[in-house]
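Researcher: First entry.
Model:
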Amino acid sequence: MPEERNQQRDKPQPARDRTGQRSGQPQQRGRRGPLRTRSPAVVLDVVFEEGLLFFELQNRDSVPVTNVVTSFNRSVLAPDGATDLTQLRIFQKVSFLASGKILRVFVDSAAGYFARRQPNTLRVELSWNRGGINMTTIVSHDLRIYRDLPFVVGRGEAARRGVALTDQTNQRRR
């Protein structure tokens, strides 16, 4: 039996943050300290779509959550260079976030974001209430992965440019 204990001790341990909790894992705050669940119900994701960057605040849980607060470790400026996106009301407090709801905020084009020397990495702390239990998670994003990704100009980009696209398949059927 002592050998089994040593084998378990020698197994690689998951990454932990400075509080000793597993990085990226939501924590429930109970009477006896933090409790962990398997995956975060609420996340802030960075989405790259057709050369554009978005923040998406998502409730991946099967139940609504309340009092969602998002805190960033660094400011992110909008394309106008003056508006701090991290201070938008959507990140200060969302009183109710329905199950499956995704709130999307335009950040900038990837080229514009990096040309304006915006942060390469972000650390985001999210807190929310699920059925009377306060939860929190920390998500880290390395935006450098989007710096030189190629992309195809699609329907969304063409519409922004005023270019009319047609669906050749549907026209042939008519």
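Researcher: Second entry.
Model:
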Amino acid sequence: MMIKNFFKTAIVAIAVSATVTSSALAQEFKVRSINTQKVLQSFWRMKELNKELKGDETKIKKENNEKVAEITKLNDEILKIRKQLQDQNLPRNKREELTNSHKLKFNRLNNADRSRRDYIEGKIKALKVVRSTEQSTMLKEIKSTIDKYATENGLDMILDKGDGVGVVMYLKVKYDVTTEIIAIINKGHEDENPGLGKAPVPAPAGGNE
């Protein structure tokens, strides 16, 4: 009987100890979540980059259309020559002239189309490099902002719950700091991001959650 009571007492003590320890950890270990992709897309620098790249994409599309128009005109000329060559009564010298012209124009058409594709693909590739480089720089700035925010608010961890690439399975909405980080990183550019509000005043380290 004494042994049973001892084990019961020990189990209760362990359970109480575990509860107290768990409660203490919950109070001391401060965790928040963030959607980094949302922050990036809401960053004023990203909005400016998107506008700039959209303008470049419009120029590329215009250039492509102009080149296509030239190629289409050349193709129409080739079709016209082919139709002339179908004439059985066409003089030999005229046929030779048209045949040579057809060959030259056909080569020009192939070269023009190849040149167009290489030019446009090169332009698009260049834009992708610019976007990738700029985004990398922005993400470093966002990371720096997150680190500073965590330090100023006495946080132990901020988990990324980004769309489709996050590592957070569940965390209450009240622990998400995405909006706060967006406001901080856009400070001074609120007019370009209406509705974001002002950056919150950092809480002292070790403050309330």
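Model: Note on the second entry: Residues 92-152 form the longest helix (61 residues).
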